[in-house]
Write a structure and sequence with these properties.
alpha/beta; Aspartate Aminotransferase, domain 1; seven-stranded mixed β-sheet; five-stranded mixed β-sheet; 14 helices; 12 strands; 13% strand
């Protein structure tokens, strides 16, 4: 920094006054510690004012500002208006809530500025350790390959690219899909996440090549319906190549019968991929682990550290049983990326050979920090607590005449609605209730549809949530439902 706190002139970008920079960092960290400690004192979410949006929508700066001034802008324009997932009454979508330890790791990773595309340096070995821990957690065999990625969507794309490579007729990387004799098709539950269909689109297979398999009464894949679908496609001259099982559906938290799916895949010589975005880590809970039996038999698994393990965004992972198939789908090393037996160009194999990215950040450090700081037992206990809270919420809903539980509580998700209004008004009324909950800062659930009916969806992935927060949600829904219902009646 210069004496006035501005960045120095010329090409060098380091501070000229390291002590002034140190003081700014201390103030920033102190402010964040206060922000974490006061999380309950803030609304869950608040709208971003028009004035803030206007202040952010400015032309790129020609001249730099003092770092303290930039930090002051952050505290005024950004910090007060986050998504809200660090708050204990954030219950929408499937967002983790982060930890201070993970945030510290982000700062340290930023200081190192490591590129984990490859080469020989300590961050590479940290990522390898995290992948090895993941392999052990899920019972995959030695020799399993893996990669840390932005999230399960990218992990699924990578896994299905390996599956395509292993099953395609011909050299699909060189010649494309058009030269094969058979069209590849796959299967996923009708409740599967949209990332699987998007992966089929991006891999050139087409969305229609992913067949939706009906679900049973528990919203799990009907494995008995899967077998005739495979047979019918083969009889039509198509080539089935994969089945996507789900460990925790995004709507209701249902877990497919992974062991049964693994049996079908083995009999039919198909690739089994598991979307375990959040639910896979339930293996850390002894009472829940049996429901995930068969996950260790999968050919590939995608899951997120940034959901139920509370690593700061973003941090997903893909594990692939067959390292050779994984590497064959992506390996490409031009001369300027040649490796070496010694020196910085060592470190074989390079991670860039297992995915589409050459430039990769040090995501592994925040995972490493989180697992070492809290341990698997404590993280598993947080998962178990959220599931117990979902059961409690389901019980409160079931015991309240004005509320209706729209599906059984399977894992950590409760879907319900305010039902004390004419049937024709219920979807609109419950949608308005959720918006009011958000805008008043009471709680932040999301909405979905269960059997065509709009539901208030409470997804509990927050280690800060307590039963009092669930009571606040229920009380808020009841109060708003009554008020909005009467308001609608008065307008009529």
């Amino acid at each position: 920094m210069t004496t006035d706190g501005r960045a120095p002139t010329g090409g060098r970008l380091d501070p000229e006054d390291w002590e002034a920079f140190r003081a700014t960092c201390h103030r920033a960290v102190d402010g964040l510690v206060d922000w974490w400690a006061d999380v309950r004192g803030r609304p869950v979410w608040r709208p971003v004012p028009d004035g803030v949006k206007a202040a952010l929508a400015v032309p790129p700066p020609k001249q730099g500002m003092a770092l303290d001034e930039v930090h002051a802008l952050f505290e005024r324009l950004v910090l007060p208006y986050p998504t809200g997932n660090t708050h204990p009454r954030f219950m929408g979508w499937v967002h983790g809530s982060g930890t201070p330890a993970g945030a510290l790791a982000e700062l340290l990773a930023g200081a190192l500025d490591a590129n984990l595309g490859g080469r020989e340096h300590a961050p590479i070995h940290v990522e390898r350790q995290v992948i090895e821990w993941s392999r052990r957690i899920f019972g995959f065999p030695e020799g399993t390959s893996g990669l840390l990625v932005s999230g399960t969507s990218m992990a699924t794309l990578i896994a299905l690219a390996a599956a395509r490579q292993a099953h395609a007729d011909g050299d699909v990387r060189r010649e494309g899909l058009g030269t094969g004799r058979y069209r590849l098709v796959g299967y996923a539950s009708a409740e599967a996440h949209s990332s699987a269909a998007k992966a089929f689109e991006l891999l050139g297979l087409g969305r229609e090549a992913l067949r939706p398999v009906p679900v049973d009464a528990g919203y799990r894949m009907d494995v008995e319906a899967l077998r005739p679908m495979i047979a019918a496609d083969r009889a039509s001259g198509l080539q089935p190549f994969c089945v996507v099982g789900t460990a925790g559906t995004v709507n209701l938290g249902a877990i497919d019968d992974l062991d049964a799916i693994a049996g079908v895949c083995r009999e039919e010589a198909l690739w089994m991929h598991v979307d375990g975005a959040f639910g896979a880590v339930a293996v850390l809970v002894p009472d829940l682990a049996p429901r995930l039996a068969g996950i260790e038999r999968a050919n590939s698994l995608a899951f997120d550290f940034h959901k139920w393990l509370h690593v700061p965004y973003d941090a997903g992972c893909v594990l692939i049983r067959d390292e050779r198939a994984h590497r064959a789908a992506f390996a490409a090393r031009p001369d300027y990326l040649a490796g070496a037996e010694r020196g910085l160009a060592g470190g074989e194999p390079w991670f860039c050979e297992y995915g589409p990215e050459l430039s990769r950040g040090f995501r592994a450090l925040k995972v490493w920090f989180t697992l070492l700081t809290h341990g698997l037992d404590r993280l598993g206990a947080a998962v178990a607590e959220n599931c117990a809270q979902a059961r409690y919420l389901g019980g409160r809903v079931a015991a309240t005449p004005e509320l209706e539980l729209l599906a059984p509580v399977s894992l950590n998700i409760a879907c319900f609605r305010f039902n004390n209004a004419p049937a024709a008004d219920l979807d609109d009324l419950n949608a308005r209730i959720v918006v009011e909950l958000h805008e008043r800062g009471i709680a932040a659930p999301s909405t979905t549809r269960v059997d065509g009916r709009l539901a208030i969806r409470a997804c509990l992935c927050n280690h800060r949530t307590e039963r009092a927060d669930l009571d606040a949600l229920v009380d808020g829904v009841l109060a708003l439902g009554r008020t909005l219902r009467h308001g609608a009646a008065a307008r009529e």
